[in-house]
Amino acid sequence: MSISPLAKVGCKARLGKNISIGDFTIIHDNVILGDDVTVESHCVLGYPTPNSDGDPLVIGDRAHIRTHSIFYEGSVFGDDLITGHHVMVREKFKAGKNFQIGTMCDFEGYAEVGDYVRTHSNIHITQKIKIGNFVWIFPSTVFSNGLYPPCNELEGSIVEDYAVIGILSCIMPGVSIGTRSLVGSHSLVKRDVLPDTVVGGVPAKKICMTKDLKMRDGSSAYPWTAHFHRGFPEEIVKSWMKEYDHE
After folding, report:
1. I need a surface site. Which of 5, 46, 73, 207 has the fewest CB within 10 A?
2. Which residues, in sequence order, are CB contacts of 154 under 8 Å at separation 6+?
3. What residues in the chain have per-residue pLDDT under 70?
4. What is the pTM of this model?
5. How far is Cα 195 from Cα 146, in angstroms, rounded to an integer?
6. According to DSSP H, which parts of the chain are helical?
7. In angstroms, rounded to a whole number, what is the distance separating the alpha carbons of residues 71 and 91?
8. Domains defined for the chain, CATH in brackets
9. What pLDDT is attached to residue 242?
10. Cβ proximity of 35 and 15 under 8 Å
């Protein structure tokens, strides 16, 4: 275990094996860290809030949390969490394994994220959002949940498995983005997106089916799992390729 003498770790925090904590990081009492976790300098884990209902911040094995990140108490993260710098995650946020959070992301609480989700930089996720597995959300995407802001009537969006949301997109309250769909860059999504569909524009409209998109060499661009495998476990990639072999 490597804990900087300049760090402050609560005496009630529960730390796993082989933990590394950097300079000026604060780990509050109500925190549970798994094994092989790295928390770089100037981070705050388990930031106290009455909205947590007393629940701890739980972070699984092999997490790597980079500098100036703040995680409130009351959230739960599976194994292999990875963050960029200057990340903030509020209470009651639940995420599965191998969640990757880009630099300067702001995630409100009371949201759910599945396994192997990739969120790039400067993304805002609001309360009541539900995101499936293997979803990609590219930079500067914003989710909205206020029906008539400012208001107390909140309605979260749903992003289904394998969906991709392009840069600078805005997802309005209550929208459902279907599995394996693609939201083009700089889109304003006000209506549901059907599975395997490409939408784009302001407001976003159907452009084509994802199967119609071609790469420069003429091969199919989607499903992206047929050709993009970097960062995913070998057993998952094998299952994808086996599925395509049967088609």
Report:
1. 5
2. 126, 127, 128, 145, 146, 147, 173
3. 245-247
4. 0.94
5. 25
6. 234-245
7. 8
8. 2-213 (2.160.10.10)
9. 86
10. no
